[in-house]
Structures are given as structure tokens and as C-alpha cells.
Amino acid sequence: MIVCHCTNISDHEIRAAIDWMRTSDPDTVITPGKIYHALGKSADCGGCMPLFLDTMRSNDNLEVPMQLRALRTGATQENTDEGRRQSHRISKQISAA
């Protein structure tokens, strides 16, 4: 089945690219961009992305490597202070009364 009409990518090609990437590097994180790159193509309009992602998710070799699974439970950008101390923050200006 053709998944991306713009670049003529089939579901078989997506699965083969995922299998090839997982075989060559078992710890790699596979993304749509990496699949396009492996196939020597680039995304065009993006209309295929929901079907492209569904095709990716249906492949058993897509799973995230074990050592990367717990990263989401760690600190995120929203709840960190980026390592800055309070003294380096811009102070509020007090208006003259």
C-alpha cells in the first residue's frame, strides 16, 4: 500500500527501513525523518504523516531501547531552573512613585 503519494513510499519500504535500522544499530531511536533519509527521500506536504506514523507503530522493531525508556520520568524543561542561580535572573524594576 502506498503511504506517501508525494514521494511514492509504500508500507513495505517503511517496514524494511525500520528493520534495517534496528539491525544496524539496536539502540537507535527511529523517527520519520530517519526513515525518509534511509529511503533517500524527504517529506513533502506532510499529509501522509498520520498514516506514516501508524505504519511505523505497527512494526515490532520500533520499540524504544530499554535504556531510553525512563528518560521521560526525569526532569523536564518546565520544572528545571536551567542551572541558573537566583542572582543571575533579571531583577524587576521598581517604578518611581
Give an account of the 3D structure:
It is built from three helices and two strands, in the order E-E-H-H-H. With 97 residues, it is mainly alpha-helical. The chain has a domain at 1-61: Arc Repressor Mutant, subunit A. A two-stranded antiparallel sheet has the order 1-2. The longest helix has 14 residues, at 11-24. The N and C termini lie far apart (71 Å).
Widest beta sheet: strand line-up: 1-2
How many helical elements?
3
Distance between the termini: 71 Å
| Protein structure class | mainly alpha
**CATH architecture heading of the domain at 1-61:** Orthogonal Bundle
Rg of Cα set: 21 Å
Per the CATH scheme, the topology name of the domain at 1-61 is: Arc Repressor Mutant, subunit A
Q: How is this fold's topology laid out?
A:
Elements: E1 2-4, E2 9-10, H1 11-24, H2 32-38, H3 49-57
Antiparallel strand pairs: 1-2
In short:
With 97 residues, this protein is mainly alpha-helical. The protein has 3 helices and 2 strands.
